[in-house]
Amino acid sequence: MKNIILSLFAFGLTCSAAPLAVVNGDFSDLAGLTRKPDGWYAGLPQGWSGSEGSYAVHAKRGATPPACNVSNLGFFRQQVGVLEQASDITLTFDVSEPWKPDVLLNATLLDGNLLELAAGDFKVGVKQQLVARGVPAGTTIIIGFQAAKSTPGLDNVSVSVQPATSAPAGAVAQSNAKITVASYYFGNYHHGDPRNVKMKGQDWDEWELVKAAKPRFPGHQQPNVPLWGYTDESDPKAMEQKIAAAADHGIEAFIFDWYYYDDGPFLDRPIDLGFLKAANNSRLKFAFMWANHDWIELHPYTKGAPRKVLFPGTVTPANFEKICAHVINDYFKHPSYWKIEGKPYFSFYDLSKLLENFGSVAAARAALDKFRAQVKAAGFPGLHLNAVAWGQPILPNEKVPVDAARLVHDLGFDSVTSYVWIHHVHLLQQATDYNLVRDGYFNYWNGAMKKFGLPFFPNVTMGWDPSPRCDQRDKFDASGYPFTNTIGGNTPERFKEALAMTKRRLLAQPDSAGPRILNINCWNEWTEGSYLEPDQRNGMKYLEAIRDVFGVAPAVKQVIPQR
To answer: Which of 185, 205, 277, 363 is an S-S bond match for 254, by CB 3.0 to 4.6 Å?
Structure first.
């Protein structure tokens, strides 16, 4: 029975109110772990969730052996129960340095939505304590640990509950507070793009990779077959079907992955010919995320082949000005362009590439300030600049800024977001469990709000599987994009629970935290295994999950500025 309850906890389910208790807090239960030489045991300790670690527990080290090696376990956590009454919660634990000196352990108390109740970094010491005060009755409690520095040892974990010494924090947002749901859109599923025609031929699009995909390991679900067929998204009629389905299921905006290089646009036909000519485009807003990364030949990629840069992501300062004028005049003024408080939303995918355009932070800031001034001169109250921030790169040539928070501040961005969960969570298994990745991302979300000090728009990722972009003759492993590990178990039901958790967290935010916005990856990243469009396996279930959680999107109402 204990194992059944623990498995429910691991999948994010809650139970009725019960006393809080830590299972295997001293790590003495070594059942299910694999013994290694010199006292090491690999795997996940009984009762705990986290990444699978090679060296998880040492039977002979620590102040009171065994000790847990948190550094190998990622976001290491356990659900410990549900509060019966409003309470103060004390998390107690020992921190040691049995393997390396100068350690630091991060400890957190969280609710059932992985929202942080209390957190802190702790040095070596016995009976270290973290306290969350005034936690409301009925709150699911999760304890979490991560190595903040070096290799801390963790032992003797326990929780205690006392009557609340302060009034429980009330809901800071009304249940009917406005939440905007947007979805990224990747447009490489159409014929006739001049660059693709030159490289691949008149009739090529990325559907060819979707069709050719094969199962690459046991349980791998490939190929994925679109329910609507291999449609051409540059056809207004095909786009009308997408717009209607999105609006009918609670999505309010497509954020197009938008490409523009020094020598001109790329993949703009789904926007210019598809969306803007669709008869029903008033039902959905649209906006741009400038996907200003290098475009590399990987459609498909053969293992060991040179990673040839076809189109560099940097542009000259002069072309940057022309591009800004282009988006203002040809897109921002469209009545369906998405605006936040009247300001057009415009996002940058690669902050490092943006900086490379100008050579210095000061020059980049001056260019963005000029962009803002041009938007105001066009009749808008301003420009909402959004930064996609990463914790780890995905594509070849991607670089993580040394200090992303400082760069975002110095460049004057208005908000921060994510593109996909795996920018922030390592996939340590070939099919890493969806809920483990979800929990890792939600934990990142806690830190990101403090780190950036700006409105943060969270992401919900439907899945991850770039195997269609791999040469299907090559062994599929984690040797470098598109050969990566995948997300497994991403069912519509689990996706729906991730949406519901995100909604509850957004509703708990104070109004001062900024607009309540989330984005989804992705409407149609078919070759990266993250798509909302219906397929023959699940039909409309992913879209229905959005509708069930958020309802149907309201009609678009936009004011066209005077030219």
So the answer is: 185
Instruction: Pinpoint the alpha helices (H) of 477-557.
Output: 492-508, 541-550
Residue 167 has pLDDT above 80, yes or no: no
Q: Are residues 148 and 227 in the same domain?
A: no
The confidence score (pLDDT) of residue 528 equals 98
- What domain count does the chain have? 2
Cα distance between the two ends of the chain = 68
| Residue 524 belongs to some domain of the structure | yes
Q: pLDDT tens across 19-69, in order?
A: 899 999 999 999 999 999 888 999 999 999 998 889 999 999 988 999 999
Query: In this structure, are 52 and 190 located in the same domain?
Result: no
Examine the domain organization and report whether 339 and 208 are in the same domain: yes
Mean confidence (pLDDT) of the chain:
93
CA gap 227, 510 in Å, rounded: 41
Same domain, 104 and 186: no
Q: How many CA atoms lie within 13 A of 182 on its CB side?
A: 29
- As given in the structure block, the two tokens for residue 394 are 């995905």
Confidence at residue 554, expressed as pLDDT on a 0 to 100 scale: 67
HSE-up of residue 330 (Cα within 13 Å, Cβ side):
11
The answer to whether position 115 is within a domain reads yes
Q: What is the CATH number of the domain that holds 256?
A: 3.20.20.80
Name the nearest CA neighbour of 294 among 206, 353, 357: 353
Provide the residue range defining the domain that includes 77. 2-162
Q: Over 70: is that where the pLDDT of 555 sits?
A: no
How far apart CA 119 and CA 105 sit, in angstroms, is: 11
Peptide bond into 223 cis (omega under 30): yes
pLDDT given at position 419? 98
Output 197-200 pairs: Cβ under 8 A, ≥24 positions apart: 199/310, 200/299
- pLDDT at residue 4 in the model: 34
Token pair 């204990």 is found at: 2
Task: Name 77's bridge partners.
Answer: 49, 144
Give the residue among 195, 217, 158, 203 at the shortest CA–CA distance from 465: 217
CA distances from 8 to 47, 105, 127, 393, 435 (A): 11, 27, 29, 32, 11
Answer for the pair 318, 302: CB distance below 8 angstroms, yes or no.
no
**Per-residue confidence at 313, pLDDT binned at 50, 70, 90?**
very high
